[in-house]
Amino acid sequence: MSIPTLTPLDPALESLVDQAERLLAGRRIAVLTGAGLSTDSGIPDYRGQGAPVRTPMTFQTFLADTRARQRYWAGSHLGWRYFADAEPNAGHRALAALELADVVNGVITQNVDGLHLRAGSRHVVDVHGSNDRVRCLSCGQFFSREDIASRMTVENPWLGEPELLKLNPDGDVDIDAVDEMIVPDCSVCGGMLKPDVVFFGEFVPATKFMQGAAIIRSAEALVVAGSSLVVNSGIRLLEQAVKRRLPIVIVNRGSTKGDTRATLKIDAGTSEVLVALRERLAS
Questions:
Q1: Domains in the chain and their CATH numbers?
Q2: Which of 95, 111, 212, 242 stands 20 to 30 A from 122 (CA)?
Q3: Is 85 exposed, middle or buried (0-12, 13-18, 19+ CB in 10 A)?
Q4: The model's pTM
Q5: Which residues are catalytic?
């Protein structure tokens, strides 16, 4: 595993990181991550500073509207390669190094990009699912996204190779010409397929939330990195730490819904702060 190196911090940020070190040193740390952690890997953020206003696909629309499913799968297929080619950044690798050093006891992520696992983290709970899996809504069979993408390429040759497309945070692109789109179906039962991610209007699976809560229960501190905590799952997990009176450090550009509950808020990029914390806590 590649270990990120420390770059000099400006004095104000270094002072905040020093405060975080004093709060976290000697404690087992649970980490909750959001989209802001993956922006340095080229994956855009829904709610970060400068993020465009979007109206993402809802679960109800996906189920009810055939054309909406065509548009979703066409855009998702075109964006998949860009999404899948993203590489873990220094923040991901710093967290993996902290887990290897037995400082971090687990990562709970709201991201669907799989970058924590690719960076080397072993105990990861993806509460919103993972974009590299596809699930049949009828029989429950799982498929590799690569396999589904290969099928779609054969069945929809008109899609061609995407050029100069703008990737959205959930790994799709916007596309309107979908009349010829053949939507993949389940090769086992013929049922409706859906990427194994939580859509807007869909509940986080109870087992996933319980696994995330278990990481916080076994920790002695919580670090939130790159999440605005607007999504209900994030703020509910934060409340688990608040109830246990754990030290809470939030690292995020811009305000979050958890700022008033944090022991320390650091308004900065996640990569530089996590690398600095790795240098201080895992040495």
A1: 1-43+88-128+203-283 (3.40.50.1220), 53-85+130-197 (3.30.1600)
A2: 242
A3: exposed
A4: 0.88
A5: 128
